[in-house]
Amino acid sequence: MDTRAESRTSTRRLARAAVLGVLPALAGCAGGAPSALDPAGTGAGRVADLWWVLFWISTAVFAEVMLVLAWALVFRRRRDARVRHGQPLRFVTIAGAGIPLVVLVTVYALGLRDLAALGDGPGPRATTIEVTGHKWWWEVRVAGVAGATANELHIPVGEKVRIRLRTADVLHSFWVPQLMPKTDLIAGEVRETWLRAERAGTYRGQCAEYCGTQHAHMALLVVAEARSDFDAWRARLGAPAAQPQTDAQRRGQQTFAQGTCAGCHAIRGTEAAGRVGPDLSDVGSRWSIGAGAVPNDGGHLGGWIANSQTVKPGNYMPPQPVDAERLLDLIAYLQSLK
Ligand code: CUA
Hints:
- The protein is α+β, with helices and mostly antiparallel strands.
- It contains eight helices and twelve strands.
- The protein has a five-stranded mixed beta sheet with strand order 3-2-1-5-8. A five-stranded mixed beta sheet has the order 4-10-9-6-7. It has a two-stranded antiparallel ribbon with strand order 11-12.
- Strand 6 and strand 7 (about 180-185) form a beta hairpin.
- The two termini are about 50 Å apart.
- The structure holds dinuclear copper ion.
- Dinuclear copper ion (CUA) binds near residues 133, 172, 209, 215 and 218.
């Protein structure tokens, strides 16, 4: 890399650090939030590049206007004859019409190019993942596989994966900032987008359309991994859930099947086949409880079962009147489902 290229890269890094540091501070966000300016996917990369073009154009225009303003403020006070006002008509034609025209046409052309690239989805044989938005969680299925999971989807890294989107109730919006721009979920319609992660990792997604009191707790996680790991995840989705191994887990399974849990939740390979709430066949391996509301550990799981309304008020799961011993069995059983 020559010196000029190096200095361009370091300027870009500096500007990026300033923007990434200042914007979240202005918005009051905590650190570690996923940023569309830190793309890891083909789609998000396009949007980020366009964003930087607009940023530099805006910066240049702002600097130019400030310079002209400073020039005017300095010279308007001088009454001596040395000040010449040039040719106002030429100045207005070039700076007021010519330059904006070039900028707008360039941005329009770049926008059209990126729009076409974002519309260039995967071929007919690509993996299809079906995502349904519910108040307030994401149901995730792989086309052709019987099972379901919630709030977490896996994709093979480096491949375009089709995401087929539906909503079970109101408007939601599927957004994984580091991978792809938003796609709205509209009642009665099947929408499609696609994801392609350029590097392995986990990427947080978020519902991006206000959908009720728990809109903020409607997160999902995209796990981009090697094709073999993805195939293993897909195989687990189609297989029965893990069998209980200890006495506590067996008692927990009984409580689950005989109590109210099975009325709303499914666990593959058991009699529990409810479709109101998330399928719990792999709940022990999930990254969170309540679509990003709390971490997935024994304490939070127990609190959620006993009274999830204190954790995520307004969600559709009523408090469960279960005694302490049966609660511990339930936790042991659910945590074993991996
Ligand atoms: Cu779903 Cu906001």
